[in-house]
Amino acid sequence: MLRFMPVGDSMTIGSTGDHTWRHRMWRHLCSTYGGPFTLVGPRETLYDKAADSPASYAYADPDFPRGHLAGWGEGWLHMAPLIGEAVRTTRADVLLVSLGLIDLGFYTNAEQTAQNARAFVAGAREANPRIAMVWLPVIHNVRAANDPPFAAQVARFNELLAKTAADLDEPASPILLASVPPTWDIDTDTYDGTHPNANGEHQLASAFAEAMYQGWELGGEYTP
Asked: In a 3-state reduction of DSSP, which class is residue 175?
């Protein structure tokens, strides 16, 4: 049984009524991965905007393994202290990580955020020395489109994230750097300039799927 853990911020947890890219990834693996697998994580809920709380189970399609480690407003800073215990308790094999926008927007600069990514790796490997990871760079959002200094921090962090992945990649515990979806468009792939709509969910799932297929020959090409 191969266990995938989605790790992320509001783009990964999703909100009431979403399918989420986690669901799209599960559907993709169901059709392309030849062995048993599941999605795991210590959390299962969506974010309920009306209640301002991660308390919703109202998925557009709730019939899939909903485990994850994602939170509205959480980043590398928040997940680094949690990842070890999450990996231990779920016996995760592969981490699908989309983090950084919140860090850069509210908490840490590019260099500090990269250091927290390194702490994240250390915590995950302490729990499972053979953990594999796929990292998605930060995708520009509406703030990056209108705030040049913030856009520069996103670009700088993505450079550091690529270097960190290369530095920490190990045969026994590989780190793949996925590519930002080349056709990502905040007008057609998000509902508010940041959070993915149905098109965006497929784009995010595709980014992880293509990285694993090209890097590890795991699964297959993504077909929405």
From this structure: strand
* SS3 category, 43: strand
Q: How many CA atoms lie within 13 A of 62 on its CB side?
A: 10
Q: How many CB atoms lie within 10 A of CB 147?
A: 14
CB 65 within 8 A of CB 72: no
- The enclosing H or E element of 47 equals strand 46-48
Closest CA to 224 of 32, 63, 38: 32
C-alpha 122: how far from its chain's center?
18
Pick from 119, 95, 103, 118: nearest CA to 41: 95
Contacts of residue 63, Cβ cutoff 8 Å, sequence gap at least 6 = none
Helices (H) and strands (E) in the chain, counts: 9, 8
Q: Are strands 94-98 and 2-8 parallel, antiparallel or unpaired?
A: parallel
Return d(Cα 132, Cα 121) in angstroms, integer. Answer: 10
Q: Is the pTM of this model over 0.85?
A: yes
Nearest to 203 by CA among 154, 109, 143, 139: 139
Burial (Cβ within 10 Å: 0-12, 13-18, ≥19) of residue 61 = exposed
List pLDDT tens digits, range 139-197.
999 999 999 999 999 999 999 999 999 999 999 999 999 999 999 999 999 999 999 99
- Going 146 to 150 to 156 to 160, the CA torsion angle's sign is negative
Q: What is the biggest distance separating any 2 CA atoms in the chain, rounded to whole angstroms?
A: 45
The number of beta carbons lying within 10 Å of the beta carbon of residue 210 is 17
Residue 178's identity, in one-letter code, is A
DSSP code for 194: S
